[in-house]
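Re-run with default settings, no changes from the original entry. Doing this only to confirm the output is reproducible before filing.
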Amino acid sequence: MNRGTITLIILVTGILMFSQPGLAAGAMKKWKDKDGQWHFGDVIPPEYAQQSHEEVNKQGMTVEVQERAKTEAEIAEQNRLAAIEEEQQRKAAEQARHDSILLDTFSNVDDIEMAREGKIAAINSRITLAEKRIEKLEKDLNERMETAAAQERSGNTPNQELLQDIESLHRQVKNQQDFIKSQNDEKVEVMASYEKDIERYKSLTSGAQAPEQN
């Protein structure tokens, strides 16, 4: 059977189906079987239900194309790409908000640098205060350790209260040292953040600051 004969059979089949009183009023479904042959009907066989098909009107014209059902892998990839796009949109919105705050808060780069130095000065003040606390704590610690050593030299065991004081002072010194480290880390982050803000501010205002061309 040649291609022309097959096409004629399909067309005649479609015409006959749409000429049936019960089918002519509504849309019909059109699908291909495993051999690539087109079929018409109001219900798609289960084995072809997940593949693409068309909705055709009573004139035999396609009014809608229903794509095949996606595989689990395709759905997973679609969700992955959607998540990436959502994250990109979130970052873009966040950058837009930050840019707006940057432009509304500062008039020039000098203002940003001044704000940076203010934060660095505040951090340095906290570090200096912590260093002074350590100095006092270590002085108290040394005094208690000398007392404990003297008691041991005299053949006595240091009392429990003294030992607890020594342990507490060690812990307080360690806490202050950890605090200083965290402040130094914050200082590095502040410097990097403001450097980034300065570069961003320059980028945002470069057009406005550019000299006019004659």
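The first strand starts at residue 28 and ends at 32. The chain has three domains: 3-66, 71-105, 107-206.
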